[in-house]
Amino acid sequence: MIDERFDAIVVGAGMAGNAAALTMARNGMKVLQLERGEYAGSKNVQGAILYADMMEKLIPEFREEAPLERHLVEQRFWMMDDKSHVGMHYRSDEFNEERPNRYTIIRAQFDKWFSSKVREAGAIVLYETTVTELARDDHGWVIGVRTDRRDGEIHADVVVLAEGVNGLLGTRAGLRERPTADKVALAVKEMHFLPRETIEARFNLQGDEGVVIEAAGTISRGMTGMGFIYANKECISLGIGCLVADFQRTGETPYGLLDQFKRHPSVAPLIVGSEVKEYSAHLIPEGGYKAIPQLYGEGWLVVGDAAQLNNAIHREGSNLAMTSGRIAAEAIVQLKSRRERMTARNLSLYKKMLDDSFVMKDLKKYKDLPTLMHTNSQSFFLTYPQLVSKAMQNVLRVDGTPKIEKEKATVKSFVKARSWTGLIGDAFRLARAWR
Amino acid sequence: MKVESSVRVEDKLYSNRYLVDVGRPHVKVRAHETPSRQLKALLKACPARCYELNDKGQVEITVDGCIECGTCRVIAEPGGDIEWNYPRGGYGVLFKFG
């Protein structure tokens, strides 16, 4: 039984929760963090890419200590049809810098390390503890939590909800809605192990250089979705995700899609001979700006995936998580130092600070894209990839057909598939949503 | 869809680590005569294939292989078809890599 009172309770030890707990503990606050996993990371699933800039703001010297995989020097985007891919690759030696910008990581290992830093900073971290309910007073104010470990309540001035995409506590307490099937994607992933040298040879890498491949097209069978391949040191993270609403509508299976992606002729040679050591699945918030719920209230704040803070267009989530966690903590520290109470009115400082950060600015920029991609998924994920592939083959295959006829045939195939108004409309809608 | 039947999900789950909370499933299916559309969708949408039809055509769940993604919650909790909780602290899937 914990009968002492805390300045803050943090629910969850993912990127957002760890950032919040670390920041508050470092500022001398009495922090209790609760995590349901055996250790921090044992319930956390991500691709995963770590964004150094946001990590540096929390632990500047992380590069010397953290378990990192490879620093990224190359990004490949593949638009795929069943037999081919049209690629856009960017590789630069400038990414081989002293303080690289992005790394591949393995979350279970990284989060364990991150959590050790939170404990070093002075927070009390309890693992294997599931928070079952928020404790509230007669006025509905959040005053603490109940867990499956102890009788009674643990009290704190403020509760930071970093409970992840499923965010059971917040939805049960009516602080926000459960995510709907058109606002979350289900991604499945496998970890493919291969000797280090094999990975470096297959991906054209030297030393700790890394590469990311992102793929869209017929691999999602007309659903809104994406595949990914990340090179780690001795394994490859490979997965695919689509909107839950699309899985529900089509009856496609996640493992069926994953299997098909693995057998694609552009993918299969990269993983041939590998040993799969884990199969995982995770929901990803895809609703963007318009899906962000109420972020604060009387005695509580919500951060990270639980707050739907994910930039689906740029596939950035963990950086928004750790930034929102840090900013929430900084707002709380400010209030605490002024001896102000953790009321909704005072905690609105968090929202204000978040609005001024890249987190909300980026999400706002793409506020219309999630809907566009979803309502036009057939065109963007099936029709266009097939057309582009045909066009490329038409250009490259030398068969004695005059070039002028080849060009005409390509234009005709686009118009036939989408019509002129459809083509112009798609271009217009995409440009407007991107702007 | 024909290729799919060849995918053995149980082989995939075999590589995972679990601590099963015997006798205390964290997800339960509400008793029913005929399954709702949402419930039937779980037969295919669940990435760990935890949901199966029994002889009477009802949907049953075995949570031992659950990878705790929450997809079934998003699809079938709103209509009351399932009751969804996290496992007790320390139990359930234990990701080595995540």
What does this 3D model show about the protein?
The complex is a heterodimer of chains A (435) and B (98). Chain A contains 16 helices and 17 strands. In chain A, a hairpin with a 5-residue loop joins strand 8 (131-136) and strand 9. Chain A is globular and about 85 Å long. Chain A has 3 domains: 6-67 and 105-178 and 290-366, FAD/NAD(P)-binding domain; 184-285, D-Amino Acid Oxidase, Chain A, domain 2, CATH 3.30.9; 370-434, no CATH class. Chain A starts with 5 loop residues before the first strand and ends with a helix. Chain A has 435 residues and is α/β, with parallel strands linked by helices. Chain B is α+β, with helices and mostly antiparallel strands and 98 residues long. Chain B has a single domain, classed as Alpha-Beta Plaits. Chain B contains 3 helices and 6 strands; from the N terminus they run αββαββαββ. A two-stranded antiparallel ribbon of chain B has the order 1-6. In chain B, strands 2-5 form a two-stranded antiparallel sheet. A two-stranded antiparallel ribbon of chain B has the order 3-4. Chain B is globular and about 40 Å long. The chains are: A alpha/beta (435), B alpha+beta (98). Chains A and B meet through helix 4, strand 11, helix 7, helix 8 and strand 15 of A and helix 1, helix 2, helix 3 and strand 6 of B.
Features:
heterodimer; A: 435 residues; alpha/beta; FAD/NAD(P)-binding domain; D-Amino Acid Oxidase, Chain A, domain 2; 3 domains; eight-stranded mixed sheet; seven-stranded mixed sheet; 25% strand; globular; B: 98 residues; alpha+beta; Alpha-Beta Plaits; two-stranded antiparallel sheet; 6 strands; 16% strand
